[in-house]
Description:
Subunit structure: Interacts with COX5B; this interaction may contribute to localize PYROXD2 to the inner face of the inner mitochondrial membrane.
Strand content: 15-25%
Number of strands: 18
Pfam family, one: Amino_oxidase
Protein name: Pyridine nucleotide-disulfide oxidoreductase domain-containing protein 2
Function: Probable oxidoreductase that may play a role as regulator of mitochondrial function.
GO molecular function, one term: oxidoreductase activity
Radius of gyration: 23 Å
Amino acid sequence: MDRPALGGDDVDAVVIGSGPNGLVAANVLADAGWSVLVLEGAATPGGAVRTEEITAPGFRNDVFSAFYPMGAGSPVIRGLGLEEHGLRWVHAPEVLAHVLPDDRSVLLSRDLDRTAESVSAFAPGDGDAWRAEFALWQRIRDDVLDAVLRPFPPIRAGRGLLRSLGPAEALRLTRMLTQPVRAVGAEKFAGEGARLLFAGNTMHTDLGPDQSGGGVFAWLLTMLGQEIGFPVPEGGAGELTSALVRRLTSRGGRVECGRRVTGVLHARGRAVGVRDVSGTAVRARRAVLADVPAPNLYLDLVGRDSLPPRLIDDLRRFEWDDATMKVDWALSGPIPWTSPDARLAGTVHIGPDVNGLAGIANDLACGRTPRTPFLLLGQMTTTDPTRSPAGTEAAWVYTHVPRGEHWSADRLRRRVDRIEQVVEQHAPGFRDLVVSRSVQGPADLEQRNASLVGGAINAGTSGIHQQLVFRPVPGLARADTPIDRLFLAGSSAHPGGGVHGAPGANAARAALARDGWAGGGYGALIRTLNRAVYN
């Protein structure tokens, strides 16, 4: 038993971490009239949603994440009305271009005709097939998003999908969402272009073309891109954080930075508060919510001795997603792409065909750094002119690398040289535009944000074996933990990574249910189910 020290704050709920999930959770609780304190170890809030001048004066670079189709499309984020607190979404002229080694490209546009025309250039019938896919999306989007983002099982959304599709088509949709993206693309499209739009978007995760479950990420991202684009907050990703903070403080909530939480305080199996790095205790009368990776919460903040041995054993099998490295540039002008599509797109994929993407994924699975990487590149000034001085470009690229490797400064430099060489092949003169750069290897990402363990940006693999009732470990697919009134609110929880706020909202709803009029029965049910899973 861990007893809190005297003194410190006394609030209804403490939220550990001020990433988007933590701030969403805090806002939901504040809306319910709770007093909420968010504790953040870093000097500024936001987690992986931050903007700084890390390259050159006047260049506002997003330090981690940048484009937010799931954020703009999420009913959780939309429901907070952040536009009333200063958030404004802006778009590049086009959404995404996938550029092949021979400089052919395929375009994803918010203009359905343009996307259809682009994929039809690879196979004449694919434009009609794309239109049919988007029509299906428009018919069921709300129920699909509800099913994906709400706690599992999605009973209400499931009923909606059955009404819209009927049992036979709903079953076939479920099959599609569990398939590898190669199979999904091959079944739906005849040509390489549409298949690459799907496969490239799956590569935003740690899944390759041949891994089960990749189809769901491809379908969600491409259909959201078709409908609402890949928007960004005007002024930088950090403006999304600022809007969440402003909304929270307007409702009486507080965010305190530089207060790293070192332990969750609990007594008789119930969370009662936290202790920060200074040793100060904060009492939480109703709940503690943790926007941190599951291993960090359970092993570091709670402690092995206070948890069921079977949960600790399951955590040994927890699988992180691939490591990531990121380069930010200050450029003296727009990137001189040979591909006209790439000049207009906010997001550019540079990579081979589906077979080549499979080879890259196989290299990573085997612990090899691919010689020619798949690059995900963002043109931020093209998307949002406020990001850098007129006539310049703030840009970035990230790529996956094997986990667990040491990246010396020299090795990082050589990898950046290779990345810039690849970009130069498709945009002659690119290197001459580089004014300054900022390079973050896996260890640098973790140093700047402790939740990006080993450079993992999704708080655990997106593989189907660690989704739904298997996320973060076999369990209930809920935010509730074996410690009463302690809730997992980060991306390690269902439904996983992405700036959509769902894990935070789900944790807040669970906390409200536990504290509500039926809370005693709710708590007893969760305890019974947890005993069945972990004992």
